[in-house]
Description:
Blueprint: E1 2-6, H1 10-19, E2 24-29, E3 43-47, E4 74-77, H2 82-89, H3 93-98, E5 99-100, H4 102-109, E6 115-119, H5 124-137, E7 142-146, E8 164-168, H6 171-174, E9 183-186, H7 200-207, H8 209-212, E10 219-222, H9 227-233, E11 239-242, E12 250-252, E13 257-260, E14 263-267, H10 276-290, H11 296-303, E15 314-319, E16 322-326, H12 333-342, E17 347-351, H13 361-368, E18 372-377, H14 382-391, E19 397-399, H15 404-414, E20 420-423, H16 436-448
Amino acid sequence: MKIGIIGWGLEGQSAYNYFGPDNEYLIVNEHPRDDFPAESDKIKVKFINAERTPGVTGNVQDLSYLDGIDACDKIVYSVTNAKNLETKFGKNPDFWAKATTTQHLFYEVVKTKNVIGVTGTKGKGTTSTLIYRMLRASGKKAFLGGNIGTPVLDFVDKVQPDDWVVLELSSFQLYNLTYSPHIAVCLMIVPEHMDWHPDMEDYTEAKANLVRHQKAGDTAIYLPSNEFSTKIAGYSPGQKIPYTKSPGAYLRDEDAMIVIGESAIIHKSQIRLLGEHNIENICAAITAFWQVTQDIDAIKEVLTTFTGLEHRLEMVRDFNGVKYYDDSFGTTPDTAIVAIKTFAQPKIVILGGSDKGVPFDELAQTAASSNVRHVITIGQTGPAIAQLLKSKEFTSITEGLQTMPEIVAAARSVAQLGDIVLLSTGCASFGMFNDYKDRGTQFKQAVLALK
Length: 451
């Protein structure tokens, strides 16, 4: 069989390893990479130095890298290539009959029905990890994968009928998915990836595939205070359970206990995760876990030990009485707002990056009124954010820095004893950095190098 693989990222490489060496391959990618397999009689690699559409994720103007892929017997495409394929092949039924994604392949072969899927604009990695750790703490055999980093085909053959799988799912992975998990968790939805989705409707419709194909015995868990999460849950034919309010898990105001049903689970002060937004994520995770087993000890074990994922409000260093936090994963204005509000102390905040077509008015207002001592604006959106801050009479701003050591040095120069230096840019990283991980890693390296 000749297999076409479109996109040589984690998903493409996972598909190649999954199908094994007995097949022929045509591997195509928009850009050259240094980790392509060696070409042979069975393996052909094709790429172009494609010019990306300015500001658009995963789309290129030159689609010739896709020429000939339709001659393959099976085609596995990376999800960010979906719109390129729609442009190239339209609704050609012959092409789409043999085109699939790693997510579709997973659902077609996995041996268990016990799948929990988590989506949302932010928080899905943390929530997925909490659910996974709670399952493991309760004695269940569980797997964690999807957008969080482990491609589903890497472990699908290891999954047994009684096992549980927790998937973090992005809007790209959900874009044309025709399967839904047994338990679906939809977190807060706000505008994101507007450089790929043409509008908010397209974005939310993609997210809705999380529940659209559920059955009556399935469960959709949603955030009732968020109109998009609530709307998406409405597509499910199964039971719908809100979190942050009963009958889901919620924070009880009078005693600061996390409660679900008749059970008081844990006091807020015992939770290791920083940030009010993580209380919502915790409530979502408990609500999902509660549908599997009502093991309070397992929940407490996780919440009293788990401090968070890398690049999510991660404390890097306390240097000369100033604490430096890496929140590089926060790539939307809303996540930066939450991060700023997490700390009552005076703050130096690093804002800006590549432009995903979202407004910064609320972020600028928050920065100008939340005990922020100084703002360092960077990247493509830096000038616009600086101008918004100035319109709100906030003028303590550094602009135009090009490297992370310069940025960290500038933050250090204005920070005072007891301050917080916060990298929470509210933007994607492309342009100055490879991705949010690269940005966060460079920040941490620069902070740790301070003397």
